[in-house]
Amino acid sequence: MIETSKNHTISKIVAKSLLRIFVLLLALASVPILSNKGAQSSLDAKHIAFPNEMAIVAPALLFIIFVVLLIFMLKNKYLRVDINWQFSLCTIFLLIYLILLYSRIYPLVA
């Protein structure tokens, strides 16, 4: 029987949990938009302006890194501890960003 380290087990649990939380947050974010028919017209009237390019580039890079790490992690079936921890850290930052983004958009939709 192959012994796995405690760090491997913890990183695997954390990575799986954060992936499920991320998917749940994305699903919950779509509920107000899908359930409210008048929200689309109120969002069409709003204009988004970004102060500089990094306001678009940084989240896009974070999401690209998230997808790449997700592919590597699922391809290796959570066996690489370093990939699991990098994915977990990236997911935490992405979750924080999405929560902050949704807190700004939700008052416009509701």
Provide key terms for this protein.
110 residues, mainly alpha
Outline the structure in words.
By secondary structure, the chain is an all-alpha fold. It has one domain. The chain has four helices and no strands. Helix 1 packs parallel to helix 4 and helix 3 packs across helix 4.
What's the quick description here?
By secondary structure, the protein is mainly alpha-helical.
Helix-and-strand structural type: mainly alpha
Query: Share of helix among residues?
Result: over 70%
Number of strands: 0
> C-alpha Rg, in Å?
18 Å
End-to-end C-alpha gap: 55 Å
Largest sheet: none
Assembly level: single chain
Order of helices and strands: HHHH
- Alpha plus pi helix count: 4
Unreliable sequence segments = none
Shape: elongated
Estimate nothing, just give the exact number of structural domains. 1
Q: What is the mean predicted local confidence, pLDDT?
A: 86
Strand percentage, roughly? under 5%
Topology:
Layout: H1 6-35, H2 38-44, H3 54-75, H4 81-109
Helix pairs in contact: 1-4, 3-4
